[in-house]
Design brief:
- With 188 residues, this protein is of the alpha/beta class.
- The chain has a domain of 92 residues: Barwin-like endoglucanases (Beta Barrel).
- The protein has two helices and six strands, in the order αβββββαβ.
- A six-stranded mixed barrel has the order 1-5-2-4-3-6.
- β3 and β4 form a beta hairpin.
């Protein structure tokens, strides 16, 4: 009976030992997988940290580039303003003798086709102006406020005293300009 009891008790122990062994294997496998998952999570966290660092670096570079662009735009504005100042100084320096306020009219080639000026040249847009030669000698460069430099190349029957007739591209443009009063200087 002792033998039978020991045998039954022993087989229970073996059976219990097998179950514990299987549980131990499962726990070991779980711990192994858990360790592997922790390693993957750690690697992913390291990748996320690296990517976050790269994003921060790129954001800083973008911010620096935006600041550089703003600085360059400010510099460009300053340069443009300085160019305007220098242009104005140049225009003022080129103006020698103030002639006074003149009444301007405008004429075009359409109004006088195939006509040369009294100086023998063909009138040019942006160049030719008719003057009273008693006031402004022919060939004189003049500066007309708001229009720029022109050359006294023509005369006209109605152009007497402080009157100028400015040559423009079209009759429509001549009518659009109408009559104006502008300051005039002789250019050096």
């Amino acid at each position: 009976m002792f033998f039978v009891t020991t045998l039954v008790f022993g087989s229970s122990l073996i059976s219990l030992g097998c179950e514990n062994y299987k549980k131990g294997e499962i726990i070991y496998e779980y711990q192994k997988q858990n360790s592997l998952l922790e390693k993957i999570v750690d690697e992913e966290e390291a990748i996320i940290m690296l990517q976050t660092k790269q994003i921060n670096t790129l954001q800083q570079k973008l911010s620096d580039a935006e600041n550089t662009i703003k600085e360059q735009e400010t510099t460009i504005q300053k340069i443009k303003q300085e160019e305007e100042v220098q242009k104005k100084k140049l225009e003022d320096a080129e103006k020698d003798t103030y002639l006074g306020n003149f009444n301007l009219s405008f004429y075009s080639k359409e109004q006088f086709p195939n006509s040369s000026t009294c100086t023998g040249v063909m009138p040019q847009v942006g160049v030719t102006v008719a003057v009273d030669p008693k006031v402004i000698p022919l060939g004189t460069k003049i500066y007309i406020e708001g229009l720029g430099v022109r050359i006294a190349q023509d005369t006209g029957g109605a152009i007497k005293g402080n009157k100028l007739d400015v040559f423009v591209a079209t009759t429509a443009e001549a009518y659009q300009f109408g009559r104006q009063n502008r300051k005039v200087w002789i250019v050096k």
